[in-house]
Amino acid sequence: MKINWRGLCLDLMFYSFGFDVTKISDFKKLVDHAVNVCEYSLENLHDNVQREKVCWIYSYAGFGFHGIGSYSEALKYDKKALELAEDIYGDNHVNVIKIMNNIAEIYRDIADYPLALEWYNWASNICEESLQTETAEYAMICNNTAACQDHMGKYAEALKGYERALKIRESVLEPEHIDLAQSYNNVAHANKNLGNIQKAADYHTKALNLRVKVCGDNHPLVAESYINLAGIYADGGCVGDAIELYEGAIIIYKKIYKETKDHPDLARVYNNYASALAKNGDIEKAYQFYLLAWDIRVKAFGIEHPETLSSYNNIAYIYGKRGEYEKALDLHKKIVKIKIAVGGENPDTAVSYNNIGMCYYRLANYDEAVIWVLKSLIIHKKSFGDASYETMNVENNLRLTYEEARNNNPGKYPLSFEEWLVIAMEGVDSDDGEQ
Q: What's the rounded Cα separation, in Å, for the pair 186 and 200?
């Protein structure tokens, strides 16, 4: 009997290949073998079942590359999966919608929000045209579109999207379905951004109660709810209560991840715990937990991943709190160099430009401060518009740095801030027009 080795290899990859955040090294070892099997199989396909397996192996590869922060590779394989899925299932199939959502998620994570919204809208239109609007998949698209709007500072629109997703999930899922807790969290998050703190706390509490009921006391989702509620308390000035909740989450994670001490969930809670400690004035303890979070993220994701860069940023923040502005400046410049290499200039890069500018401000180098904060403001205006909280915050920083520069060298800065800013922004608009 002739053995179908190609089919066996394809089956092996289909049933064993995937991505686990605790086993990134395994994914990296297998992914090249998996896609090579797929490419060979595509040249020698016997039936549609094998084509489906290739489709989903590509999708698993995309998910894995997304998970380790290799976004260009993730897009490459998700788009291969989408092409196959459209051919296998037709344009209006739920599997096509899921893969389109995955592509949109990648664009969202690299802060290309307009392109992410395009993909979400394409997926949403497919649902609406095929009357799939009262489904868990459509709720997912509504939810993730809202998350994108959230990142863009469109908090009112995000809240509407989150509430729509929750309404659909309440109608199509069982009352104790765990996805409802995620929707409660998202509605809470949007309310928090809009200043509706009590509503945010109420929805996070609903999520926590559902998760405890469904999952038990010692589950990662319960720890996540502790973290979310702690964030509400910390922002509301109840820092002591927040610290207790973070410590409760740490206890849960340590029980769960006994064999995986470097799990990214631990990094996240260490990071947030450190932020609460810093708010409480315990700078040195905060620094130690920021370092713990950074160490885990470097091991898990590498130095270019957004979560690792976030940890770098937090360490720079501690340097600033200590008055070590040269150290903070060097680290912020390292961060922005990595960000530009990975994703070019975008709103996330603009945050680093602002941080660099404010370091120069603290070092009394106001000329450099003006240059860097202006760069940040230009991107914020293009990305979020003039009226967003993010834009106004950066504009206030620019006003502060410009006024100090003017006080120190009025001959170089003869114009008022308002007059100077109009000219500075006109120059930017003119450059855009020539391109």
A: 9
User: What is the distance between the alpha carbons of residues 141 and 116, in angstroms, rounded to a whole number?
Assistant: 11
| Number of helices and strands in the chain (H, E) | 20, 0
User: What is the reported pLDDT for 17?
Assistant: 75
Lookup result for tokens 């509620």: 229
Start-to-end CA distance of the chain, whole Å, equals 66
Mean predicted confidence (pLDDT) in 266-286: 96
Contact 264, 280 (CB under 8 A): no
Residue 25 reports pLDDT greater than 80 = no
Which CATH topology does 1-109 take? 1.25.40
Domain boundaries, the chain: 1-109, 130-215, 216-299, 315-435
The residue assigned the tokens 């949007």 is 190
Using CA atoms, how far apart are residues 290 and 326, in angstroms rounded to an integer? 19
Q: Alpha carbon 243 to chain centroid distance?
A: 24
Cβ partners under 8 Å of residue 256, min gap 6: 218, 219, 220, 223
Q: What does the radius of gyration of the chain's CA atoms come to, in whole angstroms?
A: 24
* Closest to 65 measured CA to CA, from 38, 31, 97, 116: 31
Q: 130-215: which CATH topology? A: 1.25.40
pTM: 0.75
DSSP state, 435?
Answer: -
Q: What is the pLDDT of residue 27?
A: 81
The answer to which of 147-156, 157-166, 347-356 has the lowest mean pLDDT is: 147-156
